[in-house]
Amino acid sequence: MQDVIKVHCFGCGSLNERGLQIKSHWAGPEELVCRWQPQPFHIGHPGVVYGGMIASVVDCHAMWTAMAAHCRDSGIEMDGTALPFAYVTGKLSVSYLKPAVIDQPLELRARVVDKGERRSTVECVVLQRGQECARAEVIAVRVQPLA
Ligand SMILES: CCCCC/C=C\C/C=C\C/C=C\C/C=C\CCCC(=O)SCCNC(=O)CCNC(=O)[C@H](O)C(C)(C)COP(=O)(O)OP(=O)(O)OC[C@H]1O[C@@H](n2cnc3c(N)ncnc32)[C@H](O)[C@@H]1OP(=O)(O)O
């Protein structure tokens, strides 16, 4: 989706050449997946992914999950034309369950589990080699399109 809707965000913006450039895709009727390979310098401790990086990737993937689900629910095409809204992070809560190693990709699986008028609650699990290394609850709030 981030190749179609281009933003400047450090985590997901295809317009940010120094950013993480994460990509999110539908993987089933409710779930979006993101696969991301940490770089050797994304460490907290040698060999272990810095938790803040995991939080950053989760943050963006959760926003795109909220955005994609809202587009689906509202019949809005994500075809590259400007969206009539944006989602921003209201709250991000991450539980780190196991260390993630630096030389293996992370797989994030997220879905909207509750939706208010403007708020979407997104749950996201972070897997590495099929094992859950983190899980998160993220609150995304729909706002006016950002300039
Ligand atoms: C305005 C932010 C500017 C920064 C934007 C930066 C990047 C975004 C760029 C492009 C977007 C494109 C793609 C998206 C992908 C990634 C985006 C990256 C994510 C970010 O990096 S983004 C930066 C960090 N983020 C902020 O910079 C937010 C600062 N903050 C505020 O701008 C306000 O605080 C706001 C708008 C959050 C709420 O303000 P408000 O007045 O509109 O809200 P209001 O009270 O009306 O609540 C409405 C409903 O949200 C619930 N709600 C509100 N706040 C909550 C909270 N904190 N916790 C739990 N629930 C909350 C209520 O309970 C109610 O829920 P319900 O709908 O169920 O009634």
Can you say what the CATH homologous superfamily is? Hotdog Thioesterase
Q: In sequence order, what are the helices and strands, one letter per element?
A: EEEEHEEEE
User: For the record, what CATH class applies?
Assistant: Alpha Beta
CATH architecture group name: Roll
Total strand count, please? 8
Category by helix and strand content: alpha+beta
What level of helicity do the residues show?
A: 10-25%
Do you know the CATH topology?
Thiol Ester Dehydrase, Chain A
InterPro entries: HotDog_dom_sf (IPR029069), THEM4/THEM5_acyl-CoA_thioest (IPR052365), Thioestr_dom (IPR006683)
Subcellular location: Cell projection, Ruffle membrane; Cytoplasm; Membrane
GO biological process, one term: fatty acid metabolic process
Catalytic activity: octanoyl-CoA + H2O = octanoate + CoA + H(+); (5Z,8Z,11Z,14Z)-eicosatetraenoyl-CoA + H2O = (5Z,8Z,11Z,14Z)-eicosatetraenoate + CoA + H(+); dodecanoyl-CoA + H2O = dodecanoate + CoA + H(+); (9Z)-octadecenoyl-CoA + H2O = (9Z)-octadecenoate + CoA + H(+)
